[in-house]
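Protein in question quoted in full.
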Amino acid sequence: MTSLCPEEFNISIIEDGFSARDFMNQRIEELDKAGNRDAFHTADLDNILEKHLRWVENLPRVVPFYAVKCNNSRPILALLANLGACFDCASQSEIQQILSLGVTPDRIIYANPCKQESHIKYACIHGIQMMTFDSEDELDKISRCHDNGKLVLRIGVDDSRSFLRLNSKFGARLQDCCRLLERARELCLEVVGVSFHVGSGCRDPQAFRDAISASRRIFNMGIELGFKMNLLDIGGGYPGSKTFNPKFEEFADVIKFALNDFFPDDTGVQVIAEPGRYYVASACTLAVNVIGKKVLTDKSSNKNADDDDIRAERIIMYYVNDGIYGSFNCILFEYELCFLTCWKKQVLSGHKYPSIIWGQTCDSLDNLVEHCVLPELETGDWLLVDEMGAYTSVVATKFNGFKEADTHFVMTQASCFKVINGVRGIGPLNQSKRAGNVRPSFNKSGARRQQQRQQQH
């Protein structure tokens, strides 16, 4: 496996005591002097390391398969690989990216219930065995394209308690699961477990208990049909924001109790998860530059202001050099930005004004913040937006010819040393053991299917 070499992955190693925000402030000053004020991200890899240690401490039984789709930056993937994490891939391209880091195939789950046939063949050729399904059609495709798939039935669960609901698109209805398992048996496919996803941004830990309980029923169904059910995938939905409530520890407590009730240790069931935003949301801060402003006057409106420092007679529109076609695409399907920090060259007054923030494109849809209150900014000032690590740069486009914002990856010397030398039993020195823990004990259905095909021909 590729080791985490800072030079190879373009990671800036900063002195202990010098923070990622210090690095960002220094970078802004450099750009101001150069007169090239392009937007940029700063990714704090220390934050990701802390999240990983927090996961291992609170959910020691659950192996994290990081959702590559959330942020596929190569330095982040390399860090997680060196920490011993595994990976949830949704396409051939994501599989290629993870394999290029030297990650072994048994540390990858192809967790897309609807896959292109050529991508299934690619997974087969490169030894990717674990993959999800939720339909008969998917079973037929896998039967044609993969000789040794270890299949995980994705079930639909209640996702009404999440910001982003996924089960309208993916997940077999519970009443259809028996039919799907019977079809898998007819095709001599090996089903090894069950997966679910409670939705992204889950607000109620109880949703996990309900889904784990439902998974137990499907497990029993599979066992009755003769499958060796030994893998439970509890999906994603874990909070990544520093301010999100409930906290991750509350989710972990509910999950641990549910696993003890429905899948106790002595059952031999391996438990994995697919965290994405949990790992990266709070790790990245975006710096955008004010490239223009427009002042709208309304002298009759100041009487409605509740705060003497807020001057409602002026509404100020700001234009910044990133937008919804770039890093802010996430606000189209998530929730409003609420972590804005002004970076001003000089403070003109203590007054604040109702403000609107627009992105850089010509599209009027490119509205980032419809209403907020800010001190007056000038062209050339900066806005810092926290918690921009999840589903931001990975979905950026080049609409209107604007390029994707650069990302600077930073890590302290102490954290780099921990990763390279192994930390708390997680790291390159312990990967073979950790990876081995997630291999379900499969039967020989793949060989049986190959034998059947030879007899048919």
